[in-house]
Amino acid sequence: MKIIGQLAIILAVYLSGLFLEHAFNLPLPGSIIGLLIMLLLLHLKVIKVEKIKQVSDFFLNNMMFFFIPATAGIMASYHILDGFLLQVILLVMISVVITISVTALLVQFIAKRKDERNG
């Protein structure tokens, strides 16, 4: 029953993001709005991490399964990428390098800040 409650909290925040997107015709996807709402709720401690930890850990540990439909869609529509393969590969490589770099810098910043707080 605990898992269903955690899942309900996550689903409610996600659906609220979708609702806000459609109600106010926002330029951001509802899923991103939902993530921002969740971030705000967690930061303000309206929702405690412990209340969604088990389901969140499950989603994070099995994240690769969420990419299967997107990968299958790309494989099914491969003909659309025909002639742009080099550009797509280059774009993916640049995106990966930027993502890894930003992640590394952010981790260093947070670790340094945590060390300063702990003395």
Evaluate the radius of gyration: 19 Å
The sequence of SSEs as H and E is HHHHHH
How would you describe the shape?
Answer: extended
Low-confidence stretches: none
Q: Percent of residues in helical segments? A: over 70%
The profile of the biggest β sheet is:
none
Distance between the termini: 42 Å
Q: If helices are DSSP runs of H or I spanning 4 or more residues, what is the number of helices?
A: 6
Name the average pLDDT.
93
Q: Structural class per helix/strand content?
A: mainly alpha
Beta-strand content: under 5%
Number of domains: 2
Counted beta strands: 0
Explain what this protein looks like in three dimensions.
The protein is mainly α and 119 residues long. It has two domains: 61 residues, no CATH class; 51 residues. Helix content is 78%, strand content 0%. It contains six helices and no strands. The longest helix has 34 residues.
Break the fold down into its secondary structure elements and pairings:
Layout: H1 2-24, H2 30-43, H3 53-61, H4 68-76, H5 78-81, H6 85-118
Helix pairs in contact: 1-2
